[in-house]
Request: fold
Amino acid sequence: MTAPVCLISGVGPGTGSALAKRFAEGGYRVALLARSEERLAAVERELKNAKGYRCDVSDPAAVEAVASEVERELGSPNVVIHNAVRGTFGTFGEINPSDLNRNFQVNTMGLLYLARRFALAMIRAGKGAIAVTGNTSALRGKPTFAGFAPTKAAQKSLTEAMARELGPQGVHVAYVVIDAVIDVPWTRERFNDKADEFFIKPQAIAEEIWHVVHQDRSAWSFSVELRPFGETW
Reply:
């Protein structure tokens, strides 16, 4: 039997890399999608059964080209994780409207392009999983999140629409709300007065997503929320 395939968008130094490592350790061949060739090369060097593909998920032609390449080289993905994210911040009067649109293209349209491209094969197989990494902005809009929260709310709504349609066809769709500051170098620098327990570990996020996409089909989760034990919510 050939190894299953997991495709991950938005592979960076935090959650994306942790997901790639977890699924590679779990026996998957991993397709890594990112805009940065340097990031992709770094993860490829670390994981022998992972391959990087430069891709802007907001570009449907690029998604189509990379999808075909992944299928030729690795096979059709059994799991697709949309982790790519773009955010700019400011009040509704401060933001550049074009930034809101660009964020929407990556966060929501990127999900649509990936799902439309790969869900059909999953439906035919009667199994598969699509997971989306979201955050608290999908649940509420704060003043300075006017350029970001609307795109994540739309992303969550799209994910739920997909879950209701694809679930009865054997494809598990889940939305994972990450209600925390992710522990990466730039957040450590920004929140340098915070203790270790303030941050959520990328490895812990990856472990939970691994669990979600491997749930027994008699007990599937859709909306999953992750936060450190001391988080106020």
